[in-house]
UniProtKB/TrEMBL annotation:
Superkingdom as given in the UniProt entry: Bacteria
Renumbered residue ranges of the record's region Disordered: 65-84
Keywords (A to Z) from UniProt: Membrane, Transmembrane, Transmembrane helix
Transmembrane segments: 91-112
Protein name (record): DUF1640 domain-containing protein
Amino acid sequence: MSTDPEYRNLGELLTLMRDEMRTGFAELKTGLAARVSVDVYAAEQRLTEQRLGELATDVADLRAETERAEQRRETDRRTAEERRAADRRMVWAAILGAGLSLAVAVLSAALLT
């Protein structure tokens, strides 16, 4: 059997076609691998943005809670200060009342004698 030149060319063409197909599939595989990586990266970015949004909300809530606690402490401090002032006034009024009562008692005793 002699090899016809046409069949030899067909064999070479088939080999070239196989090589080109392998190269094409390798490029396609590389492209798909990169595409999947981009999709995964994009999903990770979305998840990161979501987490950052949740953290920002948590931080804002904590700041608001801290401010409310600070306002409560300030209100409690003012209330305590007002109570102390009222207590001081009451003590001075009691001392003054006792002193005046004593003075009235002394003057009454002096006038009656």
